[in-house]
Amino acid sequence: MDVSRFLEVLVKEAAAHPDRLAFLNSRTGGGSSHRLTYGELDAWSDALAAYLADTAPAGKPVVIYGHKSPLMLVCFIAAAKAGLTYAPVDIAYPADRVNDILAQIDHPLVISLADEGFAGDESLAASVVGAEAVQTAIAAGRSMGRERWIDGDTPFYLLFTSGSTGRPKGVQMPSRCVDAFMDYFTGLFPVREDGVSFNRVPYTFDVSLFDIIAGLARGYTLFALESEDEQSMRAAFDALAASGLTTWISTPSFIEMCLADPAFNEELLPRLDNVILCGEVFRNATALKLIERFPSARILNTYGPTETQAVTDIVVDEVLATEENPLPVGYLGGAMAAIVRDPETGAVLPCGEVGEIYLAGDTVSAGYWARPDLTEAVFSEIEGEDGAPVRCYKTGDKGYLDGEGRLFCLGRLDFQVKLNGFRVELADVEQALVRVPAVGEAVVLAAERDGKVSHLVAHVRLADPAVPGDFATSRSIKAALKELVPEYMVPKKIVYHDEFALNVNGKIDRKALA
Amino acid sequence: MAENSVEERMLELIEEICDDDVIREERDVDLFEEGLLDSMAAIELLVAIETEFGVTIAPTAVEREEMNTVNKIIYQVQIRYDAQ
User: Fold this and answer.
1) Residue B30, min C-alpha distance to chain A (Å)
2) Which of B19, B26, B40 sits opposite A493 (nearest CB)?
3) Cβ A256–B43 below 8 Å, yes or no?
4) Which CATH number fits domain A330-412: 2.30.38.10, 3.90.1150.10, 3.40.33.10, 2.60.40.10?
5) Distant-in-sequence, close-in-space partners of A180: CB < 8 Å, separation ≥ 6
6) What is the pTM of this model?
7) Is B44's CB within 8 Å of A454's CB?
8) ipTM
9) Contact yes or no for A261 and B60 at CB 8 A
10) B43 and chain A: CB distance < 8 Å anywhere?
11) Domain boundaries of chain B, sorted by first residue
12) Going residue by residue through chain A (514 aa), what tens digit of pLDDT does each one get?
């Protein structure tokens, strides 16, 4: 079998430099618990894999619940070594959403590493084990052969993302896709023995895999910010200055926030030589500011939905940032093909014409967990150049290819939005809103500022017309909503309507609300 | 007179960023807690303040607790504006 090449590379890296840090977070204050060497990552994940092989229900993903910590990473690798899929769930998810994920997987083993304990309903899990059990398994120090290592079509990870049905959907990424992604993306990490990459985004977001897969394969140290340091820009900047960061990875939104402070420059991050941005529109003004602040760093714009991982990249220099608006998201060619089709007829469109982007290649996901209906709607097999079948994903993104093979992305064809890098289906928020008893009907729209989504606005008809649409009502609706969806999905503003205008099809006229 | 004008212009600015006129009434609620402001919008507000008043407040110069209500935001701008 084609056993995980990523694990092979990782183990080789660990043997070559066992004392090098694999993970470091900003809560470093002395203790050894917030840093992890390559040697520890390898040995601890072996020991934990042996425990998981005995404990976890066979064939079911293991849910790893927590935020950023060395043990999270150990758990991910341990699951892979035990031949098990891991499904990360972040502490930002409210109980309702956690329970939905548990129900979809159907009684998985849960490892809960959160300081605050597990938010979900334990009766929906096979069992819930905490950090102590993990520490005990690590201390037992059992070894683990390669015979159980994850391989081929077995999903390496399962990431749950916003679904338009009001329930999260799990994107399954097979081990062979992770290997293909490693082959491509490792090339974007400069070869250096003292590389440090920014592992900032939550593990539920596919961008976190950039350095978990490619960064570790390159022998980099993954650097994460503690959540308390995320709350204060001062603390975040101090932590960044101490990090020795060489590769920046974030959404354009986050780097825009940092750029608003004049202190975010080469002096703060003198070793930075590589900036990788992904997840949403990278605006020209942001690019130019970034080039000015970090003149010696290479800046890459990249693109790819969770369903395919990042598939394209392009170096953004001053010429490109001045001449092309919007910025291209990457060069196509090599392992991944992009096909632009007419959204109405499905006909393949020539260069320069705007249509729906389809991606075909080795990193296209196996589809959604236990949802063949959703999977069939957007995944297919097409014939590759050599005649062999290639998996293809219909992205829902609007865009075009130019004569140079560069891909441009112009937003969505449906009601999915990117809000500060978070992927949100507006229907997901609407479904949650109507579950709040005070709400009769709801439509959610995205408000934009300077060509980018700035926040969500909910238009609501209250269930009881006697209830006033005032601040107190908005406050209680938002509070109820926070119990159902992550906070970033809660609309900033609620507008009240006595009734909604209908369009010719008898549906709520969304355009009239905009 | 000058005081009123900073206050009124700031209310307009905050209303625009928060996209809600409720901020004119609820001047002491925690805007972050109420979901009216997030870290991204807070940075936008600082940039807008610089454009509007020529008052520079670096994101690293103020902690969230110092600028989490309408009244506190106006106060932070007012003291810097008066010092100019």
Assistant:
1) 12
2) B19
3) yes
4) 2.30.38.10
5) A335, A361, A362, A363
6) 0.93
7) yes
8) 0.88
9) yes
10) yes
11) 2-83
12) 689 999 999 999 999 999 999 999 887 554 445 899 999 999 999 999 999 999 999 999 999 999 988 999 999 999 999 999 999 999 999 999 999 999 999 999 999 999 889 999 999 999 999 999 999 999 999 998 899 999 999 999 999 999 998 999 999 999 999 999 999 999 999 999 999 999 999 999 999 999 999 999 999 999 999 877 878 899 999 999 999 999 999 999 999 999 999 999 999 999 999 999 999 999 999 999 999 999 999 999 999 999 999 999 999 999 999 999 999 999 987 778 999 999 999 999 999 999 999 999 999 999 999 999 999 999 999 998 888 899 999 999 999 999 999 999 999 999 999 998 899 999 999 999 999 999 999 999 999 988 889 999 999 999 999 999 999 999 999 999 999 999 999 999 999 999 998 888 888 888 888 8
Largest interatomic CA distance in chain B: 33
Other CB atoms within a 10 A radius of the CB of residue A122 amount to 12
A370 touches chain B (CB under 8 A): no
Residues facing A117 on adjacent strands: none
Amino acid making up residue A226: E
Is A305:A280 a contact under the CB 8 Å cutoff?
no
Query: Least CA distance to A264: which residue of chain B?
Result: B60
| Cβ count near A148 (within 10 Å) | 17
Query: Domain-by-domain residue ranges, chain A?
Result: 5-250, 330-412, 416-513
Contact A22, A229 (CB under 8 A): no
How far does B58 lie from chain A, in Å, by closest CA? 5
In A235-268, which positions are buried (b, 16+ CB within 10 angstroms) versus exposed (e)?
A: bbbebbeebbbbbbbbbbbbbbbbbbbebbbeeb
Nearest CB among B19, B39, B58 relative to A261 is that of B58
How far apart CA A383 and CA A146 sit, in angstroms, is 34
Task: State the Cα–Cα distance between residues B49 and B55, nearest whole angstrom.
Answer: 6
Nearest CA-CA distance, residue B1 and chain A, Å: 30
Tokens describing residue A253:
């939104």
Cβ neighbours, 10 Å, residue A334: 10
The reply to whether CATH 3.40.190.150 applies to domain A5-250 is no
Record: contact A234-B63, CB cut-off 8 A: yes
d(CA A450, CA A448): 7
Pick the CATH number of A416-513 from 3.40.50.11740, 1.10.150.530, 3.30.300.30, 3.50.50.60: 3.30.300.30
Nearest to A231 among B26, B61, B64 (CB): B64
Task: To the nearest 10°, report the CA torsion of A202, A88, A185, A154.
Answer: -170
Q: Which among B19, B43, B58 has CB closest to A447?
A: B19
Any A CB within 8 A of B28 CB? no
Q: How many CB atoms lie within 10 A of CB A480?
A: 17
CATH superfamily assigned to domain B2-83: ACP-like (1.10.1200.10)
**Among A232, A253, A455, whose Cβ lies nearest the Cβ of B63?**
A232
